[in-house]
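Module 6 notes. Inverse folding takes a fixed backbone as the condition and produces residue identities as the prediction. Think of it as a translation problem where the source language is geometry and the target language is the twenty amino acids. Below is one complete input and output pair. Work through it position by position during the lab.
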């Protein structure tokens, strides 16, 4: 029996490249999901909710544009008006830019631009927001991050499910238990 040609034998570098490519595909798929998650929110709230594309976000993308990746609407603070939760990041040709997660409300009287009511995830934290949704008055997401600066930006190695609820005049963060920790 003939042994395989040397170029057909898998080497450790082949497995590393395959794992990195698979991780990039998984992260990319989580970022490209549905752009509008209003199905999880109430229908009347979405009719008058702030448009996240018209908002000014408190971070700088330089020459790149701010890209709204996902959005959902609901009356999150129980004031009878719809708010919009929006996941945004700087547009990039490649890589995984950090995400921001913001809650938007209507602008001041006479101002058409929505205003940022709360920053739930700041892009400066260098995390990616995945599995985002709004159910009732709860904003939930999976946050992907990095354990050190040496981890390639394509391949987050940390994951945490979190949710925010409006309590006592602000959004309260709850980190859900890590799988297998209970």
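Target side of the pair, the amino acids:
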């Amino acid at each position: 029996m003939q042994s395989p040609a040397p170029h057909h034998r898998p080497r450790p570098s082949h497995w590393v490249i395959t794992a990195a490519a698979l991780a990039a595909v998984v992260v990319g798929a989580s970022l490209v999901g549905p752009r509008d998650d209003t199905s999880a929110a109430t229908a009347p709230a979405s009719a008058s909710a702030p448009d996240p594309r018209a908002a000014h976000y408190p971070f700088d993308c330089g020459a790149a544009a701010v890209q709204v990746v996902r959005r959902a609407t609901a009356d999150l603070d129980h004031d009878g008006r719809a708010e919009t939760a929006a996941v945004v990041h700087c547009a990039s040709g490649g890589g995984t830019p950090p995400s921001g997660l913001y809650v938007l409300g209507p602008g001041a009287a006479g101002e058409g631009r929505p205003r940022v009511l709360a920053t739930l995830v700041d892009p400066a934290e260098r995390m990616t927001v995945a599995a985002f949704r709004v159910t009732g008055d709860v904003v939930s997401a999976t946050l992907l991050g990095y354990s050190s600066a040496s981890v390639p930006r394509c391949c987050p190695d940390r994951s945490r499910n979190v949710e925010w609820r409006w309590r006592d005049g602000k959004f309260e963060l709850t980190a859900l238990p890590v799988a297998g920790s209970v």
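Reference fact for the lab report: The mean pLDDT is 80.
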